[in-house]
Amino acid sequence: MSTQDPGLGGRELSPAITTLSAVVAVVSILTGALLAVAGLTGHAFGAWHSPEALSPGLIGAAMVGVSPGLLVVGRARVWEEVRTLVLPTVVVLVGLFAVSVADARELHVATGGLIVPVLFSLGWVATLGALAAASVLCLVVQYRRPVAVPPARIAPLPAWSKPLLAVLGSGWLGLGTGLVLSPRFWGGLVPWAVGRADAQGLGVWCLALGVGVLGALAEDDLARLRPALISVPGVALASAVLLAGRAGDVTWSSGAALPLVVLLAGLLSTGAIGHWLWTRRSVPA
Fold this sequence. Notes:
By secondary structure, this protein is mostly helical. Helices cover 67% and strands 0% of the residues. Helix 1 runs antiparallel to helix 5 and helix 3 packs antiparallel against helix 8.
């Protein structure tokens, strides 16, 4: 029996997506917390060799920050309410797995060394590969579900917010594209030391954030953004904590430091303003 709300319309949410989101959330909390804490304490712990602790720490912080939103995906009724979070999550899973394979020579399991990093590196690749494959399969299952009626927009975004979202999303998307496709050049602009895998790993997260923000602009409905509005400020706050804790590792006089702060502030304000607009909506959900 379908649980879809006939007043909302859209494509019924598949249990596969709900299960995937919960599993990814748990894995992200456990793995991300490990990377973030190691980064805060100045240890460059991760799947690959990193010249500094900040890059793997930021990847871990982003994993922790996105998890609360993934945990509430199961409360949604239709696919349209969660796709601005789920689709970027798939980008992260597939992208990080691709980076790990493309930069396999930098993995601890390939270079050897202490047993703990080697085992973590092996588990990282195996887990990411399984989750990436599962995420693509879950999307196929989701899009095979029919759309009963066209989805209705409950709370459209205010007109003044759309240019700001377009700039923010384009900024993250452009940064991510540069880091993934040209890690040597764009990695040199990062205000701390990064390796090739670091640059591309951070670039994958930037791409996902850009996809999410621009996806929110395309959805044009606060009701469809509620899980994403939890994750977006979570990523910004977790990243800010790590940057503040390792402020000495950042070259703040670099030309890239200020844009990074602005982009993170944009994520935080997007989440805060989105929640504020949702609570003040004139049309009931």
